[in-house]
Amino acid sequence: MAPRPNPKIAAALTAMGALGIDEAKVKSVLKKLLKLYDKNWELIEEENYRALLDAIFEEGDNFEEEETEAEKAPINGESARPLKRLRLRGENNSPSSASSPSKKPHIENANALQGCSAQQSQNKAVSSEENVRIAGRPSPIRNTSSDRGKQPALPQVSLGGRRHVSERASPSKHPTVEPGKFLLPSYQTPHAYTMTEPKPEPVDEADYEVPIAMVAPEPSSLRHSSMKNGITRKQQGGNVSMTSSNHNTNKEGASDVVIASSAQGEVKLSLSCSSALQGPNFRMPTQEQLLKMMEDKCLRSYKITDPTFSATKMLRDICDCVLEFTTDSNDDSQEGSRTRSSIDVSKELDVNGTAGIGGSKDLDTGSHSSNGSLQVNSFSALVSPRGPFLPAHQSSLDDAVLVSMMDKTDDIPQSDVRLQPEDPMSTNSLSLVVVPNHQLTADDIRSFHDVNDLTKGEENNQISWVNETTDDFPPPFSYIPQNLVFQDACVKISLSRIGAKDCCSCIGSCILSTNCACIDKTGGGFAYTARGLMKEEFLEECIAISHNPQQHCFYCQDCPLERSKNDGCLEPCKGHLKRKFIKECWSKCGCGKQCANRVIQRGVAYNLQVFFTSEGKGWGLRTLEDLPKGAFVCEFVGEILTIKELHERNMKCAENGKSTHPILLDADWVSGFVKDEEALCIDAASFGNIARFINHRCSDANLVEIPIQMECPDRYYHHFALFTTRKIAAQEELTWDYGIDFDDHDQPVKLFQCKCGSKFCRNMKRSNRSTRSALIAG
Ligand SMILES: C[S@@+](CC[C@H](N)C(=O)[O-])C[C@H]1O[C@@H](n2cnc3c(N)ncnc32)[C@H](O)[C@@H]1O
Question: What average pLDDT score do residues 88-109 get?
């Protein structure tokens, strides 16, 4: 009867067999190792048989070196080592091994030996260290799982700088190497950025450098200087970039790695292939190919045998390390905060090969410059640390060359990392997303939105955004919770202007007071209920005014709106609505913040959401909870401009094909003369709050706007608050009547084809009217 195999030996053989290592070789090395370690299996089994694996590699190298001493003559200026490995690879890939999938690791194993060669030569030089290592610890590999990411390379493995392509398998020399195993770009057309599997092509070694590198999306001048300096550190708009470049003096198109982090805890790691890579058939590998290859490489070169090892995780670890370094451990504010990191891999191609890094031109999304170069700017780095993910801008994947990967969410386990290049809209923060080559300005970057909270924490509640209809993202703008003066607007807020009659001296809440000065100023008494809702009567009056504006207009003699047009033909005043307003108590009053007469200043109180409408109105705002009638929803916040400034802005916007959405603020029209700097409006196009998403509905809108006087004693109201006109059910879109006269093409609000769907739609009535007139005329 055959002796029962030692289960420990069997397990070791199985583990090594899984890596494609020949059983006989394992046995022979194991025997020696057992002897060396005095049969201490613990040392051998530690770290997935790392000691054994290491010994096998070393033994393999010694064996090969002895065997191929005669073949060490340099070829093409290369050392003999790669060639020796290749020969070995050829030997290992006997027909049987090549055809069997299980033999694939043989190829990798040969590569691993190749990766070991540097180690081998170092080992010889540090034999005393080696002795210590063997005696004290079986594995020379210090790269334990806890080290991973922080110290990705083995100290004894020299990987600094580029590795020449001939160190890798080149199909011309290694016919047994599988296609797609290598990052050998096969260029099809200048526009072919599809993630197709690269074909192994004959590569001229002189033109090909292994890319460990990155071309940062930055101006060419900066890139150039960073390349010259080798290593640069630059401060750009709050981002710190650490550029580590591996400059090859023989090549114009050297490449480098950029790791950037922002004060918000965002980390961006960018890698790019430089023009030096461009070959006649350059083609981008898929992310999976790239990461798989990296994992194979780690297995070979660093002997990382941990089955849970992944290149993705390693990249994330790099980001984590940056965060660790850049986060002040004493900073309490950082504690408990959700940190995220993003990893971008970008690629720059210089198709005609003339410009290299310094000479490439930037391109628009989906297109290429005349010189064929492609500049990638990532906005995945713009993701708020609090938000899970800023999805890529709508773009075809074919045009995209940049991948972004978010990691480290609180709610999704890291092991759940999925690469989803096919789903650019996925809001899974762990998605690998391809984003387009797109030039972003600093303004663009500042104004992107967190999918969980586009208020950037400025409101009481987070306000998320969703798009279930298209691939669009909310337009870029800066979120502000309170109005800001743009430039010339005269907004007089000063304590000295608020006299005794302009503020109350109530104690606690004014609702119980019989002589509140603020309530007296609000026409018609206390406007709010104790619950902070608008009183029915007051609300109905406001609604009635908005329904019949003609009956509540004041017409001035010298209208600042007409004056501001500056076109030499002053038309008569079109009228200013005399609205009801509310005077809320304020800081100079005796009451407290919880006073029932302070509603809008307590901010947004309901759960709202920005969503993409399905009726063609673009983005809209909806409520996620039932709202009672008379509830304050939000203020319309934006930049306060003079009407003159608005006209100038409108002209510029028209040139750029953009539009503003201003609303006119009330002034003291009845005083007879309102100065230019007192005729004001609010424009929320570039700076605004959630109200900028509220769409128009003719007549039966569920919100009504009411001016609020707070910190100004006169009839210049800078607060425009929106209250519900009725009960609103959860999920309903919030709308208000902009008060547009669809016949007046001269108003500051840009006219649009109204799709409010109301049976009272003025635009629909207008088009019905014109159809009728056309029918009558015709
Ligand atoms: C203040 S913005 C509202 C948010 C806007 N929908 C967006 O996507 O950013 C006003 C613009 O929204 C669109 N809009 C608002 N109400 C609309 C309606 N009833 N029908 C069609 N478009 C509307 C118009 O383009 C208008 O210029």
Answer: 34
> Distance (Å, rounded) from C-alpha 19 to C-alpha 102?
9
Highest mean pLDDT among 194-198, 462-466, 750-754: 462-466
Per-residue pLDDT, 303: 64
Residue 403 has pLDDT above 50, yes or no: no
> Could you tell me whether strands 341-345 and 400-407 are parallel, antiparallel, or unpaired per DSSP bridges?
antiparallel
Kindly list the protein residues whose Cβ atom lies closer than 6 A to any atom of ligand 1. Answer: 475, 617-620, 659, 661, 692-693, 695-696, 750, 752, 754-756
ipTM over 0.90: yes
Instruction: Tell me which DSSP letter residue 501 carries.
Output: G
Q: How far apart are CA 320 and CA 740, in angstroms?
A: 52
Distance 379 CA to ligand 1 centre (A): 26
Q: Do the beta carbons of residue 344 and residue 378 sit within 8 Å?
A: yes
pLDDT interval class at 701 (50, 70, 90): very high
Q: Residue 735 CA: which ligand 1 atom is closest?
A: 16
Instruction: For residue 595, count other CB atoms closer than 10 A to its CB.
Output: 26
Say which residue, 227 or 561, is predicted with more confidence: 561
**Distance from the alpha carbon of residue 617 to the mean position of ligand 1, in angstroms:** 5
As separate numbers, helices (DSSP H) first and strands (DSSP E) second, the chain gives 17, 23
Contact yes or no for 389/334 (Cβ under 8 A): no
Closest ligand 1 atom to Cα of 661: 1
Is the confidence at residue 366, as pLDDT, over 60? no
Report the C-alpha gap between 77 and 84 in whole angstroms: 14
Mean pLDDT of the chain, nearest integer: 63
Q: Are 631 and 490 in contact (CB under 8 A)?
A: no
pLDDT higher than threshold 70 for residue 473 = yes
Contacts 24+ apart (CB under 8 A), 192-196: 192/283, 192/284, 193/284, 193/374, 193/398, 193/399, 193/400, 193/401, 194/283, 194/284, 194/397, 194/398, 195/284, 195/285, 195/286, 195/287, 195/397, 195/421, 195/434, 196/283, 196/284, 196/286
Calpha distance 754→757 (Å, rounded): 8
DSSP type of residue 6? P
What CA–CA distance (Å, rounded) separates 612 from 570?
Answer: 40
Q: What digits encode the pLDDT tens for the residues 492-526? A: 777 887 888 888 999 888 888 888 989 888 876 88
Would you call 207 exposed, middle or buried from its count of C-beta atoms within 10 A (0-12, 13-18, 19+)?
middle
